[in-house]
Design goal:
The chain is of the alpha+beta class and 150 residues long. The protein has a single domain (8-148), classed as Jelly Rolls (Sandwich). It contains five helices and nine strands. The strands form two sheets. The chain has a five-stranded antiparallel sheet. Strands 3-8-5-6 form a four-stranded antiparallel sheet, with no helix packed on it. Helix 1 (13-22) packs across helix 2 (34-40). The longest helix is centred in the C-terminal third of the chain and has 15 residues, at 134-148. It is globular, with a radius of gyration of 15 Å. The relative contact order is 0.22.
Amino acid sequence: MTSALPRRLAVDEATAEAVGAAFKLRGFFPEFRAEHCEKLFPRSGVYQYRRGETIVAQGDAGRDLFLVLAGEVSVRFQVDSLAAEAARLGPGAVVGEMALLGAGVRSATVAASAPSFVFRLAFDDVGYILGNNPELAEHLRALARERASR
């Protein structure tokens, strides 16, 4: 089971720049700033996770996306009694795309392997972007296909 979300932090200009780049928002906003980020994604935000804290848990329902801003996260899969770490991801990595594009069930557990700052892009906020940015939608589909084939 996932832990409750940590306290939400304010979006600064560096975060807005990272979000704009990761989610390919340049076509909508040539200069994507913190104020745009907060208005476009009112239910989304930056969260700090301590080492070992779970961001999402395998099997949970959820369709939010997560962008690692700083720190490192561990992606773990469990099948029956066997568990394995599939990856350690750092700044710029996006996780959660498989549940977003699939059935809305988390296929892996993602936890902070070091103190981390993560931008949580709420599914309620991302629907508009996916519907109006085919490049972003295809980017996320390709990422999901790549990870599924590993």
